[in-house]
Amino acid sequence: MGHSHSHNHSHHNHGNLQGRNLLITIFLNILITAAQVIGGVISGSLALLSDALHNFSDVISLVVSYIANKLAKRKASLQKTFGYKRAEILAAFINASTLIIVAVLLIIEAIERFQNPQEIESGLVIWLSTIAILGNGFSVLLLKKDSEINMNLKSAYLHLLTDMMASVAVLVGGLLMKFYDVFWVDSVLTFLIAIYLIWMGYDLLKSSTKVLMLFTPEDIPIDKIVKEINALEGIKHAHHIHVWQLNEEEIHFEAHIDFHNNITLSEFDDILHTIEELLFHKFEINHVNIQPEFGKCDDKDVIVQD
Question: For residue 263, what are the CA distances in angstroms to 2, 123, 148, 277, 290?
Fold first, then answer.
């Protein structure tokens, strides 16, 4: 079986930075949670206590992300030939699920509070929600860049972002209570944030599920790839194709290729190299595994369920 492991870029330094940023955000969130619990108890503010609960769910999701980020860098072994490269996808899946659960709880809470608005010690609420906004805002900025390229960090980032928005809702609620005696805004804002959470969480849940289920990445047209491979000289037919994503950096491709002639191994190596270059430059596939065949009577379908 001709196999190639090409173009694997090193993300080592980058990974350490991600880990450090996650640690900072974990620490910040533990502080915010503690402050909000104390403040919530003193002021009798349900908003603050529920905000503290969200912050605590952030801490948990950040810890999940941090562990996954560390695990993903572990070396492969005989028992774990891929190492822990999927840890981050799994973390994204878990965090996306919890995002949706938190959102549903938020909606229930918003409806209840809308029906019986609470009189609250607004001064303390205003101060503590401001602290939470600043802390979460800083955390959000720390993770923003990586969240665009990494599903795991995106899930942590979303938890923080919505938490920041929830704190903004609490702050606006607090200010309106203090100056205008308006008590329903808080519930409406909470409800809107929850809807946003469900929308983002669902998207993340979908994309992480696709990777876990070994679905072909959306931007990879298998029929086009087969056409391009079949057009190469000496190749009769590509079949038994599997394309899957190991994690966000690695896409694997495997196929059986039928040759017109009984070529030598060195000739096959040249063709294999051409296929690798083609797949990498055109489709960003960086792991290629080809089984060469000549005159073999197996199923010639492009996709075969083993």
Answer: 13, 81, 45, 20, 15
Q: Which residues touch 148 (CB under 8 Å, ≥6 apart)?
A: 154
Q: What is the pLDDT of residues 239-275, one digit of tens each?
A: 999 999 998 889 999 999 999 999 999 999 999 999 9
Exposed, middle or buried, 295 (CB in 10 Å: 0-12/13-18/19+)? Answer: exposed
Q: Pick from 2, 6, 1: which is nearest to 278 by CA?
A: 6
- What does the pLDDT look like over 183-199, one tens digit per residue? 677 778 778 888 888 88
- Quick check: 201 and 158 in contact, CB under 8 A? yes
The pairs formed by 208-214 with CB atoms below 8 angstroms and a separation of 24 or more are 208/89, 208/90, 208/92, 208/93, 208/96, 208/151, 208/155, 209/93, 210/245, 211/86, 211/89, 211/151, 211/245, 211/247, 211/248, 212/86, 212/89, 212/90, 212/93, 214/242, 214/244, 214/245
Q: What is the mean pLDDT of residues 60-80?
A: 89
- Measured distance CA(101)–CA(108) in Å, rounded: 11
For residue 5, is pLDDT > 80?
no
Strands across the sheet with 287-293, in order? 2-5, 287-293, 251-259, 235-245
The whole model's pTM is what? 0.79
Residues 6+ apart with CB under 8 A from 276: 4, 6, 288
Please report, as a single letter, which amino acid is at residue 33. Answer: T
Q: How far apart are CA 302 and CA 251, in angstroms?
A: 18
User: Which pLDDT tens digit goes with each residue over 8-64?
Assistant: 444 455 667 778 888 888 888 888 888 888 877 777 666 677 777 777 888 888 899
Q: Tell me the HSE value of 69 on the side-chain side, using a 13 A CA sphere.
A: 29
